[in-house]
Amino acid sequence: MTWARHHRTVQPHAWWQAGFPGLGLPMLDRHAFAFEDFCRGTSNGPIDENYRSNPEMGFHFVARRP
To answer: Domain of life, per the record (predicted)?
Structure first.
């Protein structure tokens, strides 16, 4: 196994922060979701990263639809 990331949406946080508001989807700093509510990045499986323990590997965000 190479552990290479081939997912198309792997981008740095700044990329998402710049793109979503430009589409009319502001990213929310405060929301009702808990860390464990997200389907990835919560260490749910053998190769699922834990973004809480390893924030350099990824992050979660919520955007608001107009």
So the answer is: Bacteria
